């Protein structure tokens, strides 16, 4: 196919993104977590975030819309928001053991569903590496 005959990258990414989101939604519902809740759990997986505003910026969320999500995750015992010993005006956000378990379970199910989508894809490892590189390049 000639270069001018292929779909634009945006069109291809949007089609794939819509399919992936549709695939993830029942998994998230099964685990009782919203998409943004899962994004927060995943962002906190590697360590605590110093301040809600920092977390919001890291995940590309509006900090005012993030507060109810954090409230829900905390109420459910999935995250903790504790005063930072270095600055008590700041809250450290971190996963609880239950939050870590839930994040891992959701991610395991999402990865299994991704594998089903990628199964027929030639050179899928190269696709995933390229997607990771593009994602880093635009962050």
Summary tags:
WH-like_DNA-bd_sf; Arc Repressor Mutant, subunit A; three-stranded antiparallel β-sheet; WH_DNA-bd_sf; MarR/SlyA-like; alpha+beta; 65% helix; MarR family winged helix-turn-helix transcriptional regulator; 6 helices; 12% strand; 139 residues
- Overall 3D shape: globular
Largest sheet, strands/sense/barrel: 3 strands, antiparallel
Task: Name the CATH class.
Answer: Mainly Alpha
Q: What would you give as the CATH superfamily?
A: Winged helix-like DNA-binding domain superfamily/Winged helix DNA-binding domain
CATH topology-level name: Arc Repressor Mutant, subunit A
- Annotated CATH architecture: Orthogonal Bundle
Q: What number of domains?
A: 1
Strand order of the largest sheet: 1-3-2
What is the N-to-C order of secondary-structure elements (H for helix, E for strand)? HHEHHEEHH
Domain HTH marR-type: 6-139
InterPro entries: HTH_MarR-typ, MarR/SlyA-like, WH-like_DNA-bd_sf, WH_DNA-bd_sf
Protein name: MarR family winged helix-turn-helix transcriptional regulator
Pfam families: MarR (PF01047)
């Amino acid at each position: 196919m000639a270069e001018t005959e292929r779909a634009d990258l945006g069109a291809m990414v949007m089609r794939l993104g819509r399919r992936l989101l549709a695939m993830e939604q029942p998994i998230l519902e099964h685990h009782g977590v919203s998409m943004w809740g899962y994004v927060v759990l995943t962002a906190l997986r590697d360590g605590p975030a110093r301040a809600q505003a920092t977390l919001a910026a890291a995940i590309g969320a509006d900090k005012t819309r993030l507060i109810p999500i954090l409230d829900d995750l905390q109420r459910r015992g999935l995250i903790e928001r504790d005063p930072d010993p270095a600055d008590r005006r700041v809250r450290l956000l971190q996963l609880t053991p239950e939050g870590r378990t839930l994040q891992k379970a959701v991610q395991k199910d999402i990865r299994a569903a991704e594998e089903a989508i990628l199964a027929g894809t030639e050179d899928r490892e190269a696709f995933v590496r390229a997607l990771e590189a593009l994602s880093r390049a635009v962050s």
